[in-house]
């Protein structure tokens, strides 16, 4: 093989390795970036929705207190508004997450909770009845908020677990770079050794041979066993010197 | 010493490894596994490092003994580094120490693992893990002979250290023929076992992986519970048969197939090896039965025989946890961990042939005590063993046991209990795999400190390279 092709092939191999390592790192980092954004978005939106549901239920609690005080119009308006916010948020969450026990539990509990305040309160025995509020309404309200808080807690722990996974995956993105750096150093050392052994050494041998021929009239006895221009050069020198 | 000659040979070894890395990558790619990227990158790195010397180093027709020995030792070390690459890049349970340990354990066919959950590993990496066994198994038999020049007297010197019939056969056959014999037996046994396991209903992937580990006398299984995970007496019997075959001299197996002598039925050393195994199996199984570990005799024999054969052939598979077995059975297993299998097989460690010569030498010394002027020859399968060889065997055994002791002390200094330290030491230098204590047959080495893993990795390499070859690497004058 000609020297230029040998050197080209050597550098090409180092470059191929670096390109592969770089490409892999870029690919892994892009995947990681996508996953990070998806994870943060999904969990942030989920937590936001659950918070909206919690606020809606708390608003319903305040609306029921208005009804207990006999303020029918304000109470029913607030209840209607809070209920529509809750249902819209819940349905949106449900459409995005197909299989979620926590959401199912919230939905089922909300139906029970809604059934309590849906029935008339003003101008019935319930108006001003704190005993009904404490014994019937509050336990159901607490159950509903508790289900929402459970779902929030689940979302938070999922966010933590997914973040941990992303952290572990960042290792995969990092490794090709580290391995490539170490390999490139080793390859450079190998390349140095080969250049010194198969290019510098034969040139120095021929130089010494020629010097000895010129100054000491010693015969040119240099053996080059690399199958390239240096071997040809050695042969041509021998021919020129008539050996 | 011509460094370029060594680098070129090591490059060839790396190319062979990259082939298996690419196969593992394609398995991962086909199954859409997360390990595909790490396998592909490792395959490319190994390929590039293998091709690099081919470009620059001109054709080398002959290498000398020292270059050959250096190539073998460096080849093993570099291969182990390449083997650890996919593990390091995959991460999870593989820290740097764990990846190195798993790779060395694979190539040296030790079979000790640091994995707590083997079944969670992607199939591509599982295949790579088994491949390291298979490459290591064939490597130790083939590469050592392959890289040495056919005509050199050093080659004969090296082969003479192998006192079995392989050395004798090498004078009859040319080296190429010996290589073909070894390759045919190795590949043939692997194919036969794969077919046999497939017939029992085991899936193709598991069959290939179990076969790779059996024929290489490795011990990496695809199940967390090793062979116990398949819970099949037929599978146990098949694997037992192939473990015994893999522990025998490959040249003798080949002679048996082509109907030549000496063969496995006529060789005295094989008869002795099988005889010792049978005695060990019988005592262990009867003890297990009479101690009430197993309710019936067939079960006692099934588990007793499997564990003894597995350790006695240095495979290291398990179909039961021998951690709580009676002390006598544990001592039998420890004895077989030290004794190991035959020279000329894929097994590592002390090797039965040396133990055989050692006991014959004791017999010879007793005879000489009775008749001091008598000329007593030590013979193995009709061939006289020279005094020089006898001394070499004794030196090897003493040095081997000294290393076992030294490693036990080092591990104990790391606050590892004595049973774990001692059994880990003999199990790794013997390339057996499991020991007792924390590293029992169904346990693993993950709980050991990183420093202990590095020490045991060196132990595995010492056992695989038969100690002295490994030491030559660190003898500075070897590099001159």
Concise structural overview:
Chain A has 243 residues and is an all-alpha fold. Helix content of chain A is 85%, strand content 0%.
Radius of gyration of chain A: 40 Å
Strand content of chain B: under 5%
**Total number of domains of chain A:** 2
Main sheet record of chain B:
2 strands, antiparallel
CATH class of the largest domain in chain A: Mainly Alpha
Q: Which percent range describes the beta-strand content of chain A? A: under 5%
Estimated structural class of chain B: mainly alpha
Number of helices of chain A: 5
Secondary-structure element pattern of chain A, one letter each: HHHHH
Order of strands in the sheet with the most strands of chain B?
A: 1-2
Please tally the β strands of chain B and state the result.
Answer: 2
Q: Give the terminus-to-terminus CA distance of chain B.
A: 6 Å
- Helical content of chain B (DSSP H or I, runs of 4+): 55-70%
Gross CATH architecture of the largest domain in chain A: Up-down Bundle
Main sheet properties of chain A? none
Q: List low-pLDDT spans of chain A.
A: none
Kindly report the average pLDDT value of chain A. 88
Please provide a written account of the structure:
Chain A has 5 helices and no strands. In chain A, helix 1 (3-68) runs antiparallel to helix 2 (72-96), helix 1 (3-68) runs antiparallel to helix 4 and helix 3 (101-118) packs antiparallel against helix 4 (130-215). Chain A folds into 2 domains: 3-167, Four Helix Bundle (Hemerythrin (Met), subunit A); 186-240. By secondary structure, chain A is an all-alpha fold. Chain A is rod-shaped, with a radius of gyration of 40 Å. The model of chain A has no long low-confidence stretch (mean pLDDT 88). Helix content of chain B is 66%, strand content 1%. Chain B has a two-stranded antiparallel ribbon with strand order 1-2. Chain B starts with a helix and ends in a 6-residue tail after the last helix. At the A-B interface, helix 1 and helix 4 of A face helix 1, helix 2 and helix 3 of B.
């Amino acid at each position: 093989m000609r020297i230029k092709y040998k050197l080209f092939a050597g550098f090409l191999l180092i470059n191929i390795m670096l390109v592969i390592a770089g490409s892999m790192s870029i690919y892994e980092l892009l995947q990681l970036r996508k996953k990070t954004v998806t994870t943060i978005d999904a969990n942030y939106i989920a937590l936001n929705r659950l918070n909206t549901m919690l606020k809606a239920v708390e608003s319903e609690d305040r609306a029921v207190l208005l009804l207990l005080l006999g303020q029918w119009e304000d109470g029913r308006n607030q209840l209607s508004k809070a209920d529509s916010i809750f249902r819209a948020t819940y349905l949106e969450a449900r459409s995005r997450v197909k299989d979620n026990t926590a959401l199912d539990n919230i939905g089922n509990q909300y139906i029970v909770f809604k059934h309590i305040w849906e029935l008339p309160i003003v101008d019935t025995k319930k108006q001003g009845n704190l005993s009904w509020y404490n014994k019937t309404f509050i336990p159901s309200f607490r159950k509903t908020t508790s289900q929402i808080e459970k779902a929030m807690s689940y979302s938070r722990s999922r966010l933590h677990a997914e973040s941990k996974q992303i952290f572990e995956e960042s290792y995969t993105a990092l490794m090709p770079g580290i391995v490539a750096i170490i390999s490139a150093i080793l390859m450079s050392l190998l390349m140095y050794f080969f250049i010194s052994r198969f290019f510098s050494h034969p040139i120095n041998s021929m130089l010494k041979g020629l010097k000895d021929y010129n100054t000491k009239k010693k015969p040119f006895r240099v053996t080059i066993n690399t199958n390239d221009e240096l071997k040809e050069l050695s042969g041509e020198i021998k021919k020129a010197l008539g050996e | 010493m011509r460094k370029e000659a060594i680098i070129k040979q090591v490059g060839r070894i790396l190319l062979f490894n990259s082939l298996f890395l690419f196969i593992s990558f394609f398995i991962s790619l086909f199954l859409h596994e997360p390990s595909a990227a790490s396998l592909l990158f490792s395959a490319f790195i190994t390929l590039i490092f293998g091709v690099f010397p081919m470009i620059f180093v001109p054709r080398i027709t002959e290498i000398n003994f020292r270059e050959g020995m250096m190539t073998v030792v460096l080849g093993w070390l570099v291969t182990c580094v390449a083997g650890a690459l996919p593990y390091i890049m995959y991460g999870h349970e593989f820290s740097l120490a764990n990846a190195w340990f798993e790779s060395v354990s694979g190539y040296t066919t030790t079979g000790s693992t640091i994995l707590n959950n083997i079944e969670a590993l992607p199939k591509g990496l599982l295949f790579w893990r088994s491949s390291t066994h298979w490459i290591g198994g064939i490597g130790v038999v083939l590469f050592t002979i392959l890289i040495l020049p056919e005509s050199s007297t050093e080659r004969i010197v090296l082969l003479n250290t192998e006192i079995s019939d392989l050395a004798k056969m090498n004078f009859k056959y040319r080296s190429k023929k010996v290589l073909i014999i070894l390759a045919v037996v190795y590949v043939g046994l692997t194919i036969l076992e794969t077919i046999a396991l497939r017939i029992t209903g085991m899936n193709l992937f598991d069959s290939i992986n179990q076969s790779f580990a059996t024929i290489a006398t490795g011990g990496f299984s695809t199940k967390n519970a090793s062979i116990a995970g398949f819970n099949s007496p037929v599978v146990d019997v098949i694997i037992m048969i192939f473990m015994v075959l893999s522990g025998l001299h490959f040249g003798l197996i080949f002679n048996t197939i082509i109907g030549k002598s000496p063969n496995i039925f006529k060789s005295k050393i094989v008869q002795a090896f099988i005889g010792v195994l049978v005695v060990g199996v019988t005592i262990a199984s009867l003890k297990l039965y009479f101690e009430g570990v197993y309710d019936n005799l067939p079960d006692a024999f099934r588990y007793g025989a499997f564990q003894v054969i597995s350790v006695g052939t240095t495979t290291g598979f398990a179909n039961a946890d021998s951690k709580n077995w009676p002390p006598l059975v544990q001592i039998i297993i420890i004895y077989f961990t030290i004794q190991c299998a035959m020279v000329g097989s894929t097994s590592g460690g002390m090797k039965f042939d040396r133990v055989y010569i050692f006991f014959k030498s004791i017999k010879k010394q007793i005879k000489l005590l009775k008749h001091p002027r008598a000329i007593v020859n030590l013979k193995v399968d009709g061939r006289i063993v020279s005094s020089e060889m006898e001394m070499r065997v004794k030196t090897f055994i003493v040095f081997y046991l000294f290393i076992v002791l030294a490693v036990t002390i080092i591990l104990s200094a790391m606050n590892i209990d004595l049973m774990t330290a001692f059994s880990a030491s003999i199990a790794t230098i013997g390339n057996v795999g499991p020991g007792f204590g924390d590293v029992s047959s169904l346990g693993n080495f993950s709980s050991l400190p990183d420093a202990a893993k590095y020490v045991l990795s060196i132990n595995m390499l010492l056992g695989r390279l038969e100690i002295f070859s490994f030491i030559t690497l660190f003898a500075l004058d070897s590099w001159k």
